[in-house]
């Protein structure tokens, strides 16, 4: 055992799990385990932010390009809503982000950047015009 964290993180993780399960706590790599646990939380937040940005981007496209609306956009909107709901169900503490203005600003900025890149349009509201509850509502499609 004793694979270096920087050498092969997968083998290292398997070794750490074995040490934890066998009760050999004095042998575990506490610093890197703590780092990995922190990274799990960050990864979960990034996943939610990414999915929300995709959803908001498609809602913007739906609103600002009515002539291009199609089943593909509708499927993407529904899929992102389903994935977000599942993510929030599996990680309930992330629900607090939906009320966090700093997080929403970041997700909105990502959505705007994505929408500009995909459409070439650049006149969007400075802040999200929809509440998160509204954006996640299954039947909501902006006019």
Strand content: under 5%
**First-residue to last-residue Cα separation:** 60 Å
- Overall pLDDT confidence: 94
Computed Rg: 20 Å
> What's the helix count?
5
Shape: elongated
Label the structural class.
Answer: mainly alpha
Helix fraction? Answer: 55-70%
Poorly predicted parts: none
Total beta strands: 0
How would you spell out the order of helices and strands? HHHHH
Largest sheet: none
Written description of the protein model:
By secondary structure, this protein is mainly alpha-helical. The chain has a domain of 95 residues. It is 64% helix and 0% strand. The longest helix has 35 residues. It is elongated. The termini are far apart.
List the helices and strands and how they pair.
Blueprint: H1 9-21, H2 30-64, H3 71-90, H4 101-119, H5 132-136
Would you summarize the structure shown here?
The protein is an all-alpha fold and 143 residues long. It has helices spanning 9-21, 30-64, 71-90, 101-119, 132-136.
Descriptive key words:
single chain; 143 residues; mainly alpha; 5 helices
């Amino acid at each position: 055992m004793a694979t270096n964290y920087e050498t092969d993180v997968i083998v290292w993780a398997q070794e750490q799990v074995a040490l934890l399960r066998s009760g050999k706590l004095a042998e575990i790599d506490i610093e890197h385990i703590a780092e990995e646990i922190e990274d799990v939380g960050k990864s979960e937040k990034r996943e939610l932010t990414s999915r929300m940005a995709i959803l908001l981007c498609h809602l913007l496209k739906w609103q600002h390009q009515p002539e291009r609306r199609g089943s593909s956009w509708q499927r993407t909107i529904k899929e992102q809503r389903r994935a977000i709901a599942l993510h929030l169900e599996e990680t309930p503490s992330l629900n607090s982000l939906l009320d966090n203005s700093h997080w929403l600003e970041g997700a909105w900025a990502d959505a705007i950047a994505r929408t500009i890149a995909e459409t070439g349009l650049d006149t969007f509201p400075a802040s999200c015009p929809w509440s998160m509850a509204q954006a996640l509502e299954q039947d909501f499609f902006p006019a």
